[in-house]
Amino acid sequence: MRLLLIVHVDDMKLSGPTKHMAKAWAALENGIILEVPKGNAKDSHTFLGCEHNRYQKVIKGKTIQCIDWNVTHSVGRCLAKYDEAVRNVIGRYPRMYDADTPFLHDETKHAVCRAPHSGEDFIECPSCLDTFPQSVIESDHTFRDGQTRKLSDLRPMIANG
User: Is 116 helix (H, G, I), strand (E, B) or coil?
Assistant: First the structure.
């Protein structure tokens, strides 16, 4: 049938030719009890907390198939859990700040973010590979071993409720 099945705990995603899908799902149901996730519709499915929405778009007179991935609901649930965890520890909700959506993917060979920030020596983040002037890291982001940093010192808090 030439299908690909991805399984993660209780989420499954099946990919391959449409004509084989029903037979594959029926075969899987022989050994386990399956249910269609709540909220799934003909062109909208959820996998690992991410909504996959299919739609068509016409570009230069040609109809193309598109997929939109949306994690807004999942992120909202994570933030709600974070709010409650912080409140349970310190007795107040954290103040949330508006932020722009993360930037689009930069290619890393010629991306501006890969160039040193200034003419001075720099430190490269091993996670995002962005570069930061050494003086900024030393003055704002370097701490002595064992130095306590309270959450309330890092972000202003708001009162309960």
Answer: coil
Q: Do the Cβ atoms of 97 and 158 come closer than 8 Å?
A: no
SS3 label, residue 12: strand
Q: How far apart are CA 7 and CA 153, in angstroms?
A: 42
Residue 71 phi/psi, 5-degree rounding, is -110, 15
Q: Across 16-134, where does the E strand assignment appear?
A: 44-47, 50-59, 62-70, 93-94, 122-124, 131-133
Indicate the DSSP class of residue 53.
Answer: E
Give the C-alpha separation, 160 to 111, whole Å.
43
SS3 11: strand
Predicted TM-score of the model (pTM): 0.48
Residue with tokens 């808090």: 157
3-52: pLDDT as tens digits: 999 998 888 888 999 899 999 999 989 888 888 777 778 888 888 888 88
Report the phi/psi class of residue 91: left, alpha or beta, with left for phi > 0 and alpha for psi in -120 to 50. Answer: left
Give the bridge partners for 43, in sequence order. none
- For residue 159, the SS3 value is coil
- DSSP 8-state assignment for residue 105: P
Tokens representing 143 are: 């701490």
